[in-house]
Design a protein that fits this description.
- The protein is 29% helix and 20% strand.
- It is of the alpha/beta class.
- The protein folds into two domains: 326 residues, TIM Barrel (Alpha-Beta Barrel), CATH 3.20.20.80; 72 residues, Immunoglobulin-like (Sandwich), CATH 2.60.40.1180.
- The protein has an eight-stranded parallel sheet, sandwiched between helices. It has a five-stranded antiparallel sheet with strand order 9-10-11-16-13.
- Strand 3, helix 8 and strand 4 form a beta-alpha-beta unit.
- Helix 5 crosses helix 7 and helix 8 packs parallel to helix 9.
- The protein starts with a helix and ends with a strand.
- Bound molecules: 4-nitrophenyl 6-deoxy-alpha-L-galactopyranoside.
């Protein structure tokens, strides 16, 4: 009896380890390298652009205004972004200190913003503009040395095979009450194959929409291994608000710092070991919204970037270009201000990792080698006492002009005396050198 149960246990262990060997995803060396690049990058531009921009009411307009497919299909004929200039967009991102762009290849409306051969519902076939803007952007990114990700919606309000339907894109769309989800996923994989074949090196795929049908069979294994096979360095992330699935290369947090859940989107989200990214919009919309004038201030945006870095995460900041292809001037101005700040402080953000202390009410820390950057975002007093950092502090300076900062290490921790005239309303950065 005893022998018997041991045999069963052994058999079970063999089965489980054998099974996990089959399904366990091991990133390739190229992928590991891309992950390190991604973490070093720390700052990217998110772009939500589609035919919905014509209505100036965000990228959810089809669902929010309950526009049937037949009616929504009239929009592409009005989409003529004659002012679109890929070089200007890329230059703007670079000037803001961003290292990559993530743009919508297809949003929930199902319209492909690229030259797709597997569906006519695309920018080249259906718009008077008739150009593959993603190709133009990809070429320009390559030219100017910045990387490109594609946001791709798994959820689709247009394709009838996206069936059974999820929580959104309901009866108003006028779709038949039948469809073949596997056929839809084949179609999605075919479009992803196009994106990963015809646009040069793609930095990654940013998935979104699984939350629409939480318990559907999304065939993630198949789709993820297809992507990794086509471009091993392409990083996969998904906005499913759950802990990462096997095959993903980074974890994302929508409109929240890791571990926070102010939106209520992500009650199950735990912080994992993968590289992290936070996305947020410059105003309160993702796609162009004519009425949204609630832009964040330059201070808020810079502090968001700094906090993200302190949480060891990238900051992906969104703009929604207008239907003419231009980005709103007030958004360009904000990005310019961020760039001016970032040029001065780049060393304390790019190539750093979070820590050694986790975020506090007064601010965050970033680190690189034996340097620690204390980012004081919200503190009035001249003295700031921190817990000890594990290693002894050799020197403390104001980062910007290297003015020495008095410090004291004792049983109470590490106290810094911040010169009053060096305090900065956005971020007072103190550079600490730690003993090796
Ligand atoms: C999603 C998209 O729906 C949105 O249009 C935009 O692209 C954004 C970046 O990502 O937003 C979501 C996704 C999931 C939830 C809420 C907003 N959710 O689960 O509550």
């Amino acid at each position: 009896m005893k022998k018997h149960s041991i045999t069963i246990i052994l058999l079970f262990i063999c089965l489980v380890s054998g099974w996990s060997q089959v399904t366990k995803y091991v990133p390739t060396p190229e992928n590991e390298k891309a992950r390190a690049w991604f973490q070093d990058a720390r700052f990217g531009l998110f772009i939500h652009w589609g035919v919905y921009s014509i209505l100036g009411d965000g990228e959810w307009v089809m669902n929010n205004q309950q526009i049937p497919i037949k009616t929504y299909e009239k929009l592409p004929a009005f989409f003529n972004p004659t002012e679109f200039n890929a070089a200007e967009w890329v230059q703007m991102a670079k000037d803001a200190g961003m290292k990559y762009i993530t743009i919508t290849s297809k949003h929930h409306d199902g319209f492909a913003m690229f030259d797709s051969k597997v569906s006519d519902y695309n920018i080249v076939k259906k718009t008077p503009h008739g150009k593959d803007v993603l190709k133009m952007l990809a070429d320009e990114c390559k030219k100017q040395g910045i990387k490109l990700f594609f946001y791709h919606s798994q959820l689709d309000w247009h394709n009838p095979d996206y069936y059974p339907r999820g929580n959104t894109g309901g009866d108003y769309t006028g779709r038949p009450d039948k469809g073949d989800m596997n056929k839809y996923l084949d179609y999605m994989d075919a479009q992803l194959t196009e994106l990963l074949t015809n646009y040069g090196d793609v930095a990654g795929i940013w998935f979104d929409g699984m939350w629409d049908k939480k318990d559907a069979e999304w065939r993630l294994d198949k789709t993820y291994s297809l992507i990794h096979k086509l471009q091993p360095a392409a990083l996969i992330g998904s906005n499913h608000h759950r802990p990462p699935y096997e095959g993903e290369d980074f974890q994302m947090f929508e409109k929240d710092l890791p571990g926070h859940n102010t939106t209520g989107f992500a009650p199950e989200q735990k912080i994992g070991d993968l590289p992290k990214e936070i996305c947020e919009t410059i105003n309160h919309s993702w796609g162009f919204n004519l009425q949204d004038a609630r832009n964040k201030s330059a201070k808020e945006l810079i502090q968001y970037l700094v906090k993200a870095a302190g949480y060891d995460a990238n900051f992906l900041l969104n703009v929604g270009p207008m239907p003419n292809g231009k980005i709103q001037p007030e958004h360009i101005a904000l990005l310019k201000q961020m760039g001016e700040w970032k040029r001065l402080y780049d060393e304390t953000i790019s190539g750093t990792r979070g820590g050694p202390l986790s975020a506090r009410d007064w601010g965050v820390m970033t680190q690189k080698g034996n340097k620690v950057y204390v980012h004081i975002l919200n503190w009035k007093d001249e003295t700031l006492t921190l817990p000890k950092l594990g290693k002894k502090v050799v020197s403390a300076k104001i980062f910007l002009d290297k003015t020495p900062v008095k410090f004291l290490e004792n049983d109470f921790g590490l106290s810094l005396k911040i010169p009053k005239d060096k305090m900065n309303d956005i971020d007072t950065v103190i550079e600490l050198e730690l003993k090796n």
